[in-house]
From TrEMBL, chain A:
Organism superkingdom: Bacteria
Protein name stated in the entry: Ribose transport system substrate-binding protein
Signal peptide: 1-19
Annotated InterPro entries: Peripla_BP_I, SBP_2_dom
SUPFAM superfamilies in the record: Periplasmic binding protein-like I
Family: Belongs to the bacterial solute-binding protein 2 family.
Cellular component annotations (GO), alphabetically ordered: cell envelope
Domain Periplasmic binding protein: 64-312
UniProtKB/TrEMBL annotation, chain B:
Pfam families registered for this protein in UniProt: BPD_transp_2
Native source organism of the sequence: Amaricoccus macauensis
UniProt subcellular location: Cell membrane
InterPro entries linked: ABC_transp_permease
Gene Ontology MF, one: transmembrane transporter activity
Protein name in the entry: Ribose transport system permease protein
Transmembrane intervals: 21-38, 50-70, 77-97, 103-124, 129-147, 167-189, 220-239, 251-267, 274-296, 302-318
Primary location class: membrane
GO cellular component: plasma membrane
UniProt keyword terms in alphabetical order: Cell membrane, Membrane, Transmembrane, Transmembrane helix
Lineage: Bacteria, Pseudomonadati, Pseudomonadota, Alphaproteobacteria, Rhodobacterales
Membrane topology reported for the UniProt record: Multi-pass membrane protein
From TrEMBL, chain C:
Name this protein carries in UniProt: Simple sugar transport system ATP-binding protein
Keywords: ATP-binding, Nucleotide-binding, Sugar transport, Transport
GO MF term set: ATP binding; ATP hydrolysis activity
CDD domains (UniProt xref): ABC_Carb_Monos_I (cd03216)
């Protein structure tokens, strides 16, 4: 779900990041810093608490992913004595996001957290906030032309390479380190999926000599994922495992496997999703789902912006951790990624 | 004895007048509510109130076009896509050839799309609902392919001043555009034969036809006008955001329809109000603004907004129940 | 009384076919100023086709149409109106959500100046004068059509025709949907047209009404003109016989 969201968010050519082998880089090529490195000392926290600051959350849209980020930010702000005074949803519309930012400025917030709808052209959207002295922290992307430290505190995102690598490791674990793989990747120029997919493939090729990707299929339109899966399985009925770029197209692959009566081919994908988790919990085709710690993205963005209130610089590009969720750790996975209980149906099935 | 018997108790004009005031009363009620509830949070500042007008300018201008279209008994679902195509055409022409070609490209794209819709409706006698449903998708596709999904920055200072952030005698240009469009729209709608023919066409097309009104031409005209005004809205978006993207206007259709209906324009023709559409549009903008400033969560904002629109629409459509 | 004047409308040997089907043939009729002529016949006898020919909607296949002695060919309702012919359609052709005065001036709105701005004041004044003159009892020129009773609407439609007709008004079932009292009011208005020296051709299914209003009665059966009778010189039995073709002695 997370990727679908991001997919629609950033225009496809807007984030020309280069995936350097093995390292996740930011939208402008920044080196990644682990989110855990950003620490506020008790003294700093106390100073921030005395400031009675306020914050506004100007999201690009509302989804389960945004909600997790939102919850993380709110919890972090609560700890810092910062009151959240407004929350907006731009519905992927840059014009509406501009209106939202203008509107929340009427409440004179000290901080605005946002995911820019259209980073390439978002500068006029956020410039009034910069001019008003509001501290900004962004998720995934910063407006083109904005300078870290001067215009915004930090960009917080996933450790994309690690997510892809963990998917490969999970695949190797479930197949015992050997087998024939199918690889369904996102066939579009989008740095989030490109880095994750690339990391999966690179890890399989470098670390697991007995595993081989025998079938590759790009997917440009998620709506056509079932046809793609069907074709892939018809040509390669003996696959041991299939990697799918994110959970929703993975469900189409599951449908295709079920239609073929195939219960032995394992699926590994990214981003938590209830139907996929349910299949995994009941011992179906899904073997692992790699999930980012979306809640921690909100926490980190909140802390970075709060640090800026003290004049303390945060690293430009902070990345949060991720984990491979399997049948054994579903409850924990949901907690760490989305900071909520897993759906009851999934928990029941996993017992 | 007089043939015009005056029966004041049953004067139908009275009831209609009250109907037309619903939107103004609603606007006032919401304004007073926010002014009281949000008195400490900047709602009443000049800056915030002028923000509402600036933010709603494109929707207001699209709504003016829709008043003509709905009053003529047609509908235009393609306004959002038209906005995107116009804004992108303007941005590309602006960066390539300068201010005047940019403006002409934006308005021209809108007028052409409108005329295309209008020609299909007027002469092929296809229902406008289906025509514009199809062209909504068609031109959304055109907008996507026009610049290969890329956003186009608009850097021409004259353009962004004229259509976006500029002022004249201290008045923001978006306010001037809104006032000009409402004034011309109101005049054309209320005080010209064209406006009367639009209403007659929407009210009873057969009666209009046998009365010598060129009904197909009216249909062509209202849809072309709607396209042209959507084109202007596209210019305003491009000026305000200093960029054009295929997503511009995509989510505006429902807001435009709601503003128009709340403003006292009937969905099925024969009755409309330009000033009502302006107030309806401002009311939508004020709702968005006030609910955000109240600190409501996004879900709660949507629920409250939906509920208020429902009440407003119910009140302004009550005439139909009689 | 209308004998001595020239006819406002003269139809000579009108024939109309749709494809191979003959709708009207050998139809000839004169209508004089201030004369009310009723067109009667069963459903499908060709009455509506004749009205459409005279109002310019369908041009005749053959035959001549003369207005005030001049041959005319008409291809649209607009042309018929230009010749001073107005029609009150069975559905009245009123715009229901518009005011009485805008309906009276539908498609022919008064404008003030070259900018083309509507002259509402003039239209309202003229409407008020007209409804008073014709004794059409409506609340006000501003009243919205949908708030009026059936009789009032009929009155507005007839008032509109009266206002614009210089020579002839065609009435298609003017009282079909009305109650007794409203029918009486509308009949008074129709008689008012006669007083204004306008020719009237009306279709009616009510023989009582025809005998109350018409000077002459023209009977159609299956597209053929069976005959024209002076009201004063005929009776219902003869007309019914002509309509149905049952009795002998016709033509």
């Amino acid at each position: 779900m997370r990727t679908l969201v991001a997919l629609l968010t950033a225009s496809i050519l807007a984030a020309p990041a280069l995936a350097v082998e093995g390292i996740t880089t930011g939208p402008n090529g920044e080196t990644a810093t682990p989110a855990a490195d950003l620490i506020l000392s008790p003294d700093e926290v106390a100073t921030i608490r005395q400031g009675h600051h306020t914050a506004a959350l100007a999201w690009h849209e509302m989804s389960e992913y945004t909600r997790a980020v939102d919850r993380g930010a709110r919890d972090a702000f609560a700890d810092l004595g910062i009151e959240v005074v407004a929350q907006t949803d731009a519905g992927f519309d840059a014009a509406r996001q501009k209106a939202d930012v203008e509107t929340v400025l009427a409440k004179h917030p000290s901080i605005i957290l946002s995911l820019p709808v259209d980073p390439a052209t978002a500068a006029p959207v956020f410039q009034p906030a910069v001019d008003a002295g509001v501290k900004l922290a962004f998720v995934d992307n910063s407006p083109a032309g904005f300078v870290h430290g001067r215009d915004y505190a930090a960009v917080v995102s996933d450790d994309l390479f690690q997510m892809g690598k963990k998917a490969a490791d999970a695949m190797a674990a479930v197949l015992g380190g050997k087998g024939k793989l199918g690889y369904i990747y996102h066939d579009a120029d989008f740095y989030v999926t490109n880095q994750r997919d690339g990391a999966f493939k690179a890890t399989i090729e470098a670390d697991f000599p007995d595993m081989e990707i025998v079938a590759e299929q790009g997917m440009a339109d998620p709506a056509r994922s079932e046809e793609i899966a069907q074709a892939l399985l018809t040509q390669n009925p003996d696959l041991d495992g299939i990697y799918v770029t994110w959970a929703e197209p993975a469900l189409s692959v599951l449908a295709a496997l079920k239609a073929a009566g195939n219960s032995h081919t394992k699926i590994v994908t990214l981003d938590l999703n209830e139907p996929a988790a349910l299949d995994m919990a009941t011992g179906g085709n899904f073997a692992a789902i790699v999930a980012d710690e979306a809640y921690d993205i909100g926490q980190t963005a909140a802390r970075a912006s709060a640090a800026a209130l003290l004049g303390k610089a945060a690293p430009p590009f902070l990345v949060v951790d991720s984990l491979a969720v399997t049948r054994d750790n579903i409850a924990e996975g949901w907690q760490r990624s989305l900071h909520t209980d897993a759906p009851v149906s999934v928990l029941e099935a996993a017992k | 004895m007089s043939g015009t018997v005056q029966d004041t108790r049953r004067n139908p004009a009275r009831r209609i007048d009250w109907q037309q005031h619903v939107v103004y009363l609603g606007f006032l009620a919401i304004f007073v509510f926010f002014a009281v509830v949000l008195r400490d949070t900047g709602f009443l500042t000049v800056r915030n109130l002028s923000n509402i007008v600036l933010q709603t300018a494109p929707v207001t201008i699209m709504a003016i076009g829709l008043v003509f279209v709905l009053s003529a008994g047609e509908i235009d679902l393609s306004v959002g896509s038209t906005v995107a195509v116009s804004a992108l055409s303007a941005a590309v022409a602006l960066n390539g050839w300068g201010l005047v070609p940019g403006v002409l490209a934006g308005l021209g794209a809108g007028l052409l799309i409108g005329a295309f819709n209008g020609a299909l409706v007027a002469w092929l006698r296809l229902p406008s609902f289906l025509v514009t449903l199809a062209t909504m998708g068609l031109f959304a596709g055109v907008a996507r392919s026009l610049t290969d999904l890329r956003s186009i920055p608009v850097t021409n200072g004259a353009f962004t001043g004229f259509f976006g952030s500029g002022t004249l005698f201290g008045i923001p240009s978006l306010v001037l555009w809104t006032v000009a469009a409402v004034a011309f729209g109101h005049l054309a709608f209320r005080e010209t034969r064209f406006g009367a023919h639009v209403l007659a066409t929407g009210d009873n097309p057969r009666a209009a036809l046998v009365s010598g009104i060129r009904v197909p031409r009216v249909r062509l005209a209202v849809l072309t006008l709607s396209g042209g005004l959507a084109g202007l809205a596209g210019l305003l978006y491009a000026g305000r955001l200093q960029a054009a993207k295929y997503t511009l206007g995509e989510t505006d259709l429902m807001t435009v329809i709601a503003a128009t209906i709340v403003g006292g324009t009937l969905l099925n023709g024969g009755k409309g109000s330009i000033v009502g559409a302006l107030v309806g549009s401002l009311m939508m903008g004020m709702l968005n603004n006030g609910l955000i400033l109240m600190g409501l969560s996004v879900s709660d904002q949507m629920i409250v907004r939906g509920f208020i629109i429902l009440v407003a629409v119910a009140l302004s459509l009550r005439e139909k129940a009689s | 009384m209308a004998r001595m004047t020239a006819p406002v409308l003269a139809l000579r040997d009108i024939r109309k076919t749709f494809g191979g089907v003959v709708a009207v043939e050998d139809f000839s009729l004169d209508i004089h100023p201030g004369e009310i002529v009723a067109l009667v016949g069963d459903n499908g006898a060709g009455k509506s086709t004749l009205i459409k020919i005279i109002s310019g909607v369908h041009p005749p296949t053959s035959g001549a149409l003369t207005i005030d002695g001049a041959d005319v060919t008409m291809s649209s309702a607009t042309m018929a109106r230009a010749h001073g012919i107005e029609v009150v359609y069975q559905d009245l052709a009123l715009a229901d959500r518009q005011s009485v005065y805008m309906n009276l001036f539908l498609g022919r709105e008064r404008v003030r100046n070259r900018l083309g701005l509507l002259d509402r004041r003039a239209m309202i004044a003229e409407t008020a004068r007209l409804v008073e003159e014709l004794d059409v009892r409506i609340p006000s020129p501003h009243a919205i059509i949908r708030d009026l009773s059936g009789g009032q609407r009929q009155g507005v439609a007839i008032a509109r025709a009266t206002h614009w007709a210089r020579k002839l008004v065609l009435l298609d079932e003017p009282t079909a949907a009305l109650g007794v009292a409203e029918t009486a009011r509308v009949e008074e208005i129709i008689l008012g047209l006669k007083a204004r020296r306008i020719g009237v051709l009306m279709i009616s299914h009510s023989l009582d009404q025809v005998f109350r209003l018409a000077d002459r009665i023209c009977v159609l059966r299956r597209g053929r003109q069976i005959g024209v009778r002076r009201t004063a010189e005929t009776d219902k039995n003869e007309i019914v016989a002509m309509i149905t073709g049952v009795a002998s002695g016709v033509e």
